[in-house]
Amino acid sequence: MKKKFRIIGILSILVIIILGTFIYLKFFKFNTHIKDATLSEQIVFAKSNDDVLNAGVMFGAKKEIAKTIAVILVHGWGVNFYSPNYISIGRSLSEKGYTCVVVNTRMHDIGNVEGYKWGNRLRGGGYWGIESDQTKDLAAWIDFVESNGFKKVILLGHSAGCAAVRIYQAEKQDNRVIGLVFASGNVNADSPIDSSLVSQAVRFTSENKGDELVEDPKRSFPSYTSAATIMDMVNKPPEYKDFFGIHTVNAGITKIQCPVLAFYGSNGDIANETDLELLKSSVKKQPKGPSSVTTTMITGADHMYDGEEEQVAGVITKWIDNGFH
């Protein structure tokens, strides 16, 4: 009997180990594909015109094949410029001849301190940042790369970073930006914000408490957004909420003239080929828009392109080298 219980105990432990390993590999595995550095890398900074200082890393290209075009990679929600996948993409692009600057905006991480003004702490990040102010950060980064000799820039936005780069170009129509890359960004129109959250945000901001966090009780995990952040999203112009014009005529995309490349990963990303087709068909309905729209899938990649960063860099450089067609 004791031997039977011992065997059952051993089998139970094995089941727990196997189950634990599966959960770890599926949900908690960190990036194991970080590309080694082979070229020059430098931590760099850019200050916006409202004195927000952001950091980034510049990957220098191979001198013998260096291009005159620089790529600026903008992070997604809750992360930052030194996320391993971004580092690997930046290194791969530099090896293919394209200087790449992977940058923070004031929306980096869940929360950050942008600085201090009149004795008050200015917060940023996913919980507290004002998304619309990212245009100031991107303008500073484009000025930075121009000061380093690059008059032509590709803006590459990942996930939430897609909204940052497309709104920047729609607002500024910066002639230094010769192409936009939307990596795993949202295509559909923004979902309406729950009225109960908006009412709380309105109350807090009217009381000059824009930093107060509002919890979304409908999420399966704790989720917070500051009142000021919510109101910034509420006040986003309609043409930017439905940027590709799925339901809107003269949407934000009509203000984009440069070529566009959009892609998703084929392995559990936030969207797929159907969404890319929706993007293209919606843009086609608009009275004007990008000079070209190219879409593709990154085979075997998840939302962060873990292990497929080289493929991502290859897709981007091929698109650039082929003249955006």
Unreliable residue runs: 14-30
Q: Structural class per helix/strand content? A: alpha/beta
Beta-strand residue percentage:
15-25%
**Quantity of strands, as a count:** 12
Q: Report the average pLDDT across residues.
A: 91
Distance between the termini: 73 Å
Instruction: Give the strand order of the largest sheet, numbering strands 1, 2, ... along the chain.
Output: 1-2-4-3-7-8-11-12
User: From the structure provided, what is the oligomeric state, counting identical versus distinct chains?
Assistant: single chain
Helix count equals 10
Can you tell me the overall shape? globular
- Determine Rg (CA atoms, Å): 22 Å
Largest sheet: 8 strands, mixed
- Helicity level: 25-40%
The sequence of SSEs as H and E is HEEEHEEEHHEHEHEEHHEHEH
Q: What is the topology?
A:
Elements lengths: L1 H27 L12 E7 L5 E7 L9 E6 L9 H12 L4 E4 L8 E6 L2 E5 H4 L5 H14 L4 E7 L1 H13 L4 E7 L11 H12 L6 E3 L8 E3 H8 L3 H4 L18 E6 L7 H13 L7 E6 L10 H13 L4
Parallel strand pairs: 3-4, 3-7, 7-8, 8-11, 11-12
Antiparallel strand pairs: 1-2, 2-4, 5-6, 9-10
Helix pairs in contact: 2-10, 4-5, 6-7
Q: What's this model, at a glance?
A:
By secondary structure, the chain is of the alpha/beta class.
Please describe what this structure looks like.
The chain is an alpha/beta fold. The chain is 37% helix and 21% strand. It has ten helices and twelve strands. It has helices spanning 2-28, 84-95, 125-128, 134-147, 160-172, 195-206, 227-234, 238-241, 273-285, 309-321, and strands at 41-47, 53-59, 69-74, 100-103, 112-117, 120-124, 152-158, 177-183, 213-215, 224-226, 260-265, 293-298. The strands form three sheets. Strands 1-2-4-3-7-8-11-12 form an eight-stranded mixed sheet, with helices on both faces. A two-stranded antiparallel sheet has the order 5-6. Strand 7, helix 5 (160-172) and strand 8 (177-183) form a beta-alpha-beta unit. Helix 4 (134-147) crosses helix 5 and helix 6 (195-206) packs across helix 7. The longest helix is centred in the first third of the chain and has 27 residues, at 2-28. The chain is globular and about 60 Å long. The model is unreliable at 14-30 (pLDDT under 50).
